[in-house]
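Deviations from the work plan: none for this task. Representative record:
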Amino acid sequence: MSRRHFLALSAAGLGAAGLTACGSRGSSSTSNTLQIASPDKPVTLKVSSSNQPIKSGTSREAGSLRIANYADYVAPELLDKFKQQTGAAVEVSTFATDVEALSKIASGAFNVDLLLSTAVDLLPKYVASDLLQPLQKSYLTNFDNLWDSVKDPFYDQGAQYTVPYTVFSTGIGFRTDLVKAPLTGDNGWDAMWDAQYTGAVGLLDSYREAIGLGLQHAGIDDINTTKAADIAAAKAELKKMLTATNPRIDVLGYQNIPEATTKVNQLWSGDMLLAVGYLPAGTGPETLGYWTPPIAKRVINNDTISIMRKAQHPALAHEFINFMLDPANAKINQAYIGYQSTLRGFEAETLIADGTIPKNLANALVTADDFAKGLRIDALPAAVDTLWQNTWSSINTGS
Amino acid sequence: MTRTRRQQLNWLWAGLATPGIAWMAMFFVVPFYAVAAVAFGRIDPILQTAAPEWNPRYWQFDSFSDVFHRVVSGDLRTVFVRTLVYVVVAVAGCIAVGYPVAYFVSRHAGRWRAALLALMILPFWVSYLMRMLAWVNLLQPQGWVARALTTLPGGDRAWLSGQPITVVFGLVYGYVPFFILPLYATLDRIDGRLLEAARDLGATSKQSFWRVIVPLSYQGLVAASVITALPMVGDYYTNALLSASPKTAMIGNQIVYFLQDTTQPQIGASLVLILSVVLLIAMAGYLVSVSRAQKLVTR
Amino acid sequence: MKRTPKFLAFFTGMYVLWSLVPVVIAVLFSFNSGRSRSTWQGFSFRWYWGDKFSSVWHDLQYRTDLRNSLVLAALTILIATPIGVGLAIGLTRWRSRPAQVANGVLLLPLITPELVVGTALFLVVTNGYSFLSLGRPAQLVGHVTFSLTYVVIVVRGRLLSIGPDLEEAARDLGATPLQALRMVVMPLLTPAVFAAAVLVFATSIDDFVVSSLLSSGAGSETVPVAIYGSVRGGATPALNALATVMLVASLLALVVVFAIMRLMHRRSGDSNAGESSLKELASW
């Protein structure tokens, strides 16, 4: 192509770029700051005057409710029941990691009304980027069914934007019949680095959880650390794991363990309860085991439900949240997704007494005591968060 | 034809072509400028996303130079190198599989030629995803091929977990139809009389193959390889379907990761720019060598 | 008489089997009666319409996927074919710099990785073209952009083989350029236009990268995107069934177009209509 052709082309391009003065959409750059919360520093999230809750009593919109969620994280039976009750079908767009959800909602690649699992540590980013709308409490008549300890959480005082969904701890699931010795004690996570499990290890595809594991294995207690040296140490640990056991990195531990694709898998406690349903015929739940560190080092977390600012069906979304806060529906949901609900009647002691949970997986439930004392994953300042994410992506390139 | 008649006609042709040209300008050319605008944009402090900067005077190169350093000497270099290795090996595999088939169908197939041609075109009508789906089913632990392979030494492994050989195999399987057809066209065009002449001069079929067919098909072989290799460099779904492990991640996986799974699409945009430059250089190199070869021939 | 080299014949036969048999097996397993995609458990139509929740007919998401794929393909044909035909005729005849540049640019989609074009479109849609939104609108734009090149190549090939003589003859007989185009060139181009349309159809329903990058969630999901998302998980053979339905759709489109072209060849007196149609379809 001659120089003239090249010039003509670039002239066309630059000229047409004038068209794009229609302005940028998508990622709104705001002058808001991140309101980072922790259990001892609770935060009341800002509600701006231009972002007020919808009027009480707004009628239900027509059309389908669109929600974004992890895969296999809401009972299809429940969505059917909602459709029969309200006439609205529910469309679920799935994501694999919480950062993916944030990315797609911010860019518009997810055009949804409701986010069924907003991670607590990413909540400040959602609010600061004006992605959420505050809740209209008059729709949430079932709000009182929640545990007292989650009605006014430290990350969202007054529950302005969120309603809790499930509660869980992070630990390691394993096949009791396929590991040399069951994981016990304070250092059960060593199994993830044990070369005898090469090719049968799974790591959580979550930058906070995976790097957190690296930190804890390196002896660093602060899983919300901002120090670059700590993060480098965690990266070194994870690289050692990659060479020693070649783990698969996904959020499918609830399938991997029962199907024996992995023998040792970092996962969330609810995954092990869910795994019971994936066991092949002839294998009983006693083959499943769950290990977490002692409470001082155990990561406890809860997912939350929130409504998007650009939701096209906000009243319907509120109805859905209220629907999920009904204990009868929560029971149906827990039977399918395994994760522990945060409603009254779903405390650890009650569930164990009911016999709904296999005895050997009792430690996969979160007691009120655990919930109060466990380690929380808090939001990170923006630059530190980028460091964490870049570290994770460099681990993901296998370099 | 009078001058005004020609002008009239020119306006007609221009009018017919304008919608298409406008479309291509707006939806093919300008988007590339948007990639640069995002790669060199201002970074929003909350989400660390880049807001696009359309005016080149205000472009900021920090993010891009950071990515560039990672590519040249950092963690992204491994991925780039791995991608190039996979593509080279896969194209070699395509040649090894595709050349004999193209040669046979073009020169020795006789009455089977039409049928074989139809069979070679058939994979185009099957979705790439479906062809990979087929192999995922076969290579799953309970799949027929996986089970058959366990009888071989070293065959008992998780084929769909971080195995480079599965990814390269998938690339060959997926792209070889795109390789065979242009190669077939080249081999088909070779004048049969040249081969007859060679035989008349006493060449064995092996000699006429190596001394007549191979040199004459060389240009076409290189062209087919380039047509296959270029899209392959941007492939990410083959690895995602057949391996899903960071050990076999290609540069395409990284680009999609930054674009969809993080709030930093500008890193993906920078990678796309770097990738495009690499491909442009490769393409330019190829075109230069072609024009040089043509000059030799027409001298 | 030529000897058929045995090894090469065998090799080619093996290649054909290797190329097609896995797909045949995948189609076969769509009729599996159990939930496994790799262990045969019996024959059944369960995953097509039998299973009340998970079959292609009953699963709401699969139906959305099918509808999206087919609607997107139809819209792409409706937009890309006229623009592409105009582009082919115009660029072949118009002698000017812009035309030469456009010719060069048109070839670029063939060698550019789809990821690069998809990324560029994603970034321009989310950052500039606010009249376009992600989902079906953006996906349609992406599909048309890719398809234009194919339409131009097919139609231009036919145009060059028709040559300018008939058209010039018409003009000499007093027709305006537009009339000559409408009454002489277009009828002759029709087989190529049909071939281009079916090519666009097949490309569109099988497209993955652009549809995935420009999607807006489950509502705009197409069949390839659905396959990509579920194939590594615990999806049932309904996934195979979904893929098979798409395969049948594109083969059907091919057969329909071939039949139409053969009809047109017969009407214009071609005695060997079938073979000429085949040659035309394969000639691009």
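Chain A is about 35% helix and 15% strand.
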